Amino acid sequence: MLCLLLAGGPAKAQEKFRARNFRVRVAVQHEVEALALQGLGAYQVIAANGRPLTQMTAFDPYFVQITRGQPGSRLYRLVLRELDAHQVDPAVEYAKAAKDAYGLPVKVLRMPARDRHESRIIVTLGEFQTLEAARNYHQTLKNEKVRYIYEDRARAEQGEVRLLNRQGSIVARDSRFLRLVPLDIAAGSLRLMELNPSRFKANDLLEARRYRGEMELTINEEGTLTAVNDLWIEYYLYSVVGGEIGQDAPVEALKAQAVVARSEAVAKIQRGIVSSSFFDFFDTPIAQLYRGKQEEDPRVLQAVDATRGEILVWNGQAVDAVYGHSCGGVIASAHDVWGGMHEGYSVRRLDRLVNDKAPDLSNGSDAHAYTSKPTDALCNPEQAGFPAYAKKYFRWTRRFSGAEFSALAGVGRVKDVVVERRSPSGRVTRLKIIGDRTWVADDELEIRRALDHVNSTFFTVLPVQDENGYLKSLTVYGAGFGHGVGMCQMGAFMMGKKGYNYRQILAHYFTDVKIRRLYR
């Protein structure tokens, strides 16, 4: 759950981030019952009040269990807006306006992805002790549309975190959390895995993920166990960069990925946009993919070290430097995809080194010329050195029979699929499915889900009707993989192959930005 409290604004958040020495807190195990761990080096175990409790012996297995607490007290919040996970800036701006208008606590929350549904951002108003109180306040709002009421929870009560040795004896306990601190910060790492007591064998830890930095073992809002890896942002990037663009990318592309990944993380933390009250990010692509120390690669470490502390800045603020796998040849502006966002650093253009001004592709026939056949682009796979695993994303086709699509759409028997609105970058922004009932989607993720999770919204459709006017077949011609905003990773990959340095790569994908070093 992403959490923003509007109390002090970005400046206060930035000071807090700097005060904790640019460390990030990542949930690496969430809502589990027990964990097994092993320190590759000695670790100090510290209570929530800062008191040292014991020292873990290097290479000995330990176990973490909890006495399950009572779920935290409930609070009810009115949900004013629900947005795509990338729409951080409009969420913050709307939250500020709501706080000024109503004088009530306002929170921006990120809802984690579940059951193939991507993460979302919600803007909430108020902290009501009962559902009835929330409903009563809702009745007083005249011009504000409330989407639904969200039930939030405080940290669980009456539970206990316990650390046990291999003999099963409790060696440390705390009612809130235990913090594991390596005595040798540079060399220490910790193996960690979810524990199934009936199946666990000591050798299982050899296959567990390893983590740098500190580990906080805490009782979460639901009364279960969450493990939070607290580490310097550079160590975080050692894993993230390779996980996001691939360890085999050219070094200059790895450097560009390091800068955008660092910038995105810093921008979210400086704005106070984090996933929980006690951690910043999840370790999945909901935020940025983080797999710990065992996924590190010497080439990635070189790229991260070469750009240490560097972020992108626009108008004096860290850039939320989003990126995607493949733009399909046309880079979309943030406004094209998510609406309401006019950042000067995110503009529409062709993904070419020359003549990069993009034509207006809001007309379906013009867009079809791009989605139905290859075009000249940095992410075009017909180039020497292009990674084989990524070739299938530049141009792709999905075909459905009328019966298949009717079963998928859930509107009865489908008659037609209509693109009602398309952005100048060619992305579909409003899709209508006409059947026994009519369904309309005007959100990027909903549009992609409607077509069975297609790779992007950069597509055109060719519906064919039978003699009775019902859908006989549907062909979707698509380009790219992901939202298409910001840095195209495959384009950056090929720029690196062609000899461009990371500053040139970043200048190609982000307009009027500066590179600023936060620390050395």
Report a brief summary of the structure.
It contains 12 helices and 31 strands. It is α+β, with helices and mostly antiparallel strands and 520 residues long.
Overview of this protein structure:
This protein is α+β, with helices and mostly antiparallel strands. The protein contains twelve helices and 31 strands. The strands form eight sheets. Strands 5-4-13-16-17-2-18 form a seven-stranded mixed sheet. A six-stranded antiparallel sheet has the order 12-11-6-3-14-15, with no helix packed on it. Strand 11 (160-164) and strand 12 form a beta hairpin. The two termini are 32 Å apart. The model is unreliable at 1-10 (pLDDT under 50).
User: What is the number of beta strands?
Assistant: 31
Please identify the oligomeric state. single chain
Kindly provide the radius of gyration, computed on alpha-carbon positions and rounded to a whole number of angstroms.
25 Å
- What is the overall number of helices? 12
Helix content: 10-25%
What would the principal axes of the Cα set say about the shape? globular
The span between the termini is 32 Å
- Largest sheet, spatial ordering of strands: 5-4-13-16-17-2-18
The main β sheet shows up as: 7 strands, mixed
Mean pLDDT: 88
Low-pLDDT runs of 5+ residues are 1-10
Strand content: 25-35%
Helix-and-strand structural type: alpha+beta
